[in-house]
Sequence to fold (143 residues):
Amino acid sequence: MRIMGLDVGSKTVGIAVSDPMGWTAQGVEIIRINEENGEFGFERLGELVAEYEVTQFVVGLPKNMNNSIGPRAEASMAYGAKIAELFDLPVAYQDERLTTVQAERMLVEQANTSRAKRKKVIDKLAAVMILQNYLDGASKNLL
Fold:
């Protein structure tokens, strides 16, 4: 049983998957999409779902700082609804406020990478953080 975490943007979707026990999240890849042109990367997502035997999705929900739902969160929820329909798998949403900022800070402080290199991995790292936060919250509920 693996859970797939998604950081959905307008141009990319960062992908992470859990280990089979559901304890840790690992980055997989970044799928290029074009929300404006209706290209959402569902074919590649389906390949990854099959490869990793995914049983559930966790989609990052970029709420506004005041906890309200804005256009970006609505777009993420629409993406989640579509993948639930396409793959017939449950979708959970994880508050992702500031995860991209945290991911960038982590890369700057720990990896000392250039801006260009950070841009290539930031969405995947954000997906890892979204999924890991979800897994950590789920494990607390079991204790």
